[in-house]
Write a structure and sequence with these properties.
The structure is a homodimer.
Chain A lengths: L11 H14 L13 E4 L13 H13 L10 H7 L3 H6 L1 H11 L5 H14 L15 H12 L3 E9 H5 L2 H5 L6 E13 L2 E12 L5 H10 L5 E4 L5 H8 L6 E8 L6 E2 L10 H9 L2 E4 H4 L13
Parallel strand pairs in A: 1-2, 1-5, 2-3, 5-6, 6-8
Antiparallel strand pairs in A: 3-4, 6-7
């Protein structure tokens, strides 16, 4: 067998991961955890793939909004829509609530099967604006190795994201080897309906459950029913998830990815809006969470060389 | 290998199950379904175990209410509480909303860990009023064999119940071999809190998602993300789940258990309140759902000889 985590640099962080996994899996270890309780939860945006300039699902939703605009001439008078089309960041910030409402409208009013097709079509052609490659090639190679290493050691891996499971399920199996039913996310309103003589689920505007911040432990409990023993996040939205996972009676490991690598990806932490790593970072030392430096601890960032534009 | 489904009588119903599983699993079959899409969903109450005189979780919740009564002297003036203590069915029916509110109060106001302990304690000592045995011995032997048979053929099995996952997760692995995270249920309100210096989930009164009727396809989609190809229920609360599972493009099997066996279990169908099998029964013929007669199609009902009271 080759050494695990080849894209992780030798050092305290890689050793902490190897030691934890060894401690909870070694027969006779005082920290032994049986396989069914080896639950690992990973945030998605900024933890398993990039999230700059904004979470990719938001880019998809905005593209859906722009595509739907011809059917909505009334939007031309909407300040949020005008700000979006003018790329006016200040005006967008002033009209955030109105923008979210427009996004909800543009991303509802169809069946889940129809929406699934839209996601697939978008993923097949959309490219990251700065890194110029398909979004699904922006997954982190060291994290793929960590997922493989955990699976090989009997861990059950879940994604717990502020995005929706619906958006992620389309691609997470190919990208991460994670099954669609192991994804916990924000939940939008759905209604059971008959369409064209077939039963279907219809997307209505509005959020029913927000799987972020203090929502993450709730989402985890509802979907899994067991407290995770490993949690990996990258922002304040993951703080409560890490507290919950590392606040049980047994052994646990909390990990935070620090985006400090402007050369290979992006550098942002305390002042990055909804992607900020600030309070969680402050808590890390007190709770023994491991802060992973993208720049120092990862030999590589992305899973493949950048794809060229056609 | 021994023949599958030994407690199922030879006949059209057993043959329909065997044929469906053979059709979707046989290499080269025109109805072949790959293993990852072999999703089977089972209702719990009345489908995998008994539900008379009322769903057992409701009996548990009432026992919690009675146990909490000494701390709530104000309940003595509550008509629903008085009707409950007097076993007055007519008065209970008149005060159903008030009773549900009392049940919510008595079953909230503690952490999920504390509530989990209450469920475990109750299960260890409570006995069915008429059948005089622990509730967990009221699971159906033919269904255990069906679950085994489906698992052996690569199916992933989920429970989709009007009860809560929290109540079921405690015992479903021992009873059915189903993992806690494969249970979809009604969701109560939860709040992330710190208690005694530890992160916890606190139960608040109220239902956030009702996993019954038209809620079941929504619960299935959110938890699994794929349309099941087999659904097994027993009442009108399962109707939309069966429609959804059998309304896709590919092969599917819908099954309804008919409680027609007063000698070995209970007999009820069209006029059984929330447990009625009425509209779903009417739909069965049109949609090709298989109606399973407990009396005709099952050689045995319960998984073991009745336990005697101490």
């Amino acid at each position: 067998m080759s050494a695990p985590l080849p894209s992780w640099r030798d050092g305290a962080v890689r050793n902490a991961i190897l030691k934890f996994v060894n401690d909870v899996t070694r027969d006779g270890s005082p920290s032994y955890v049986p396989p069914e309780a080896r639950i690992a939860v990973f945030d998605n945006d900024g933890t398993l793939w990039s999230e700059r300039p904004m979470p990719f699902q938001l880019i998809f939703m905005i593209d859906q909004l722009k595509a739907a605009a011809p059917q909505h001439p009334e939007w031309k008078r909407n300040p949020a829509f005008k700000a979006l089309m003018a790329n006016d960041a200040a005006a967008l910030a002033r009209n955030e609530t109105a923008l979210l409402q427009l996004l909800e409208v543009a991303n509802s009013g169809m069946t889940t099967d129809q929406y699934d097709q839209s996601i697939r079509q978008w993923l097949a052609s959309a490219r990251h604006p700065a890194l110029d490659r398909p979004y699904t090639s922006l997954v982190y190679q060291p994290q793929l190795e960590l997922l493989d290493f955990l699976r090989a050691n009997g861990f059950q891996i879940w994604i717990v994201s502020g995005g929706t499971a619906e958006f992620m399920r389309v691609w997470v199996t190919a990208a991460y080897g994670i099954a669609p039913e192991q994804v916990v996310g924000t939940q939008e309103k759905l209604k059971y309906v008959w369409r064209d003589g077939k039963p279907a689920l219809y997307r209505e505007p509005g959020i029913e459950f927000n799987d972020d911040g203090a929502g993450k432990p709730v989402g985890i409990f509802r979907a899994i029913g067991r407290r995770p023993i490993l949690a990996f996040g990258n922002s304040d939205g993951d703080r409560e998830m890490l507290e919950y996972a590392t606040g049980g009676a047994g052994p646990s490991l909390g990990l935070l990815l620090h985006h400090d690598d402007a050369g290979r990806e992006f550098a942002y932490d305390r002042h990055a809006g909804s992607a900020s790593l600030d309070k969680a970072w402050d808590e890390a030392a007190a709770r023994g969470w491991v802060v992973v430096s993208m720049k120092q601890d990862w030999k590589a960032v992305f899973s493949a060389a950048p794809a060229r534009s056609p």
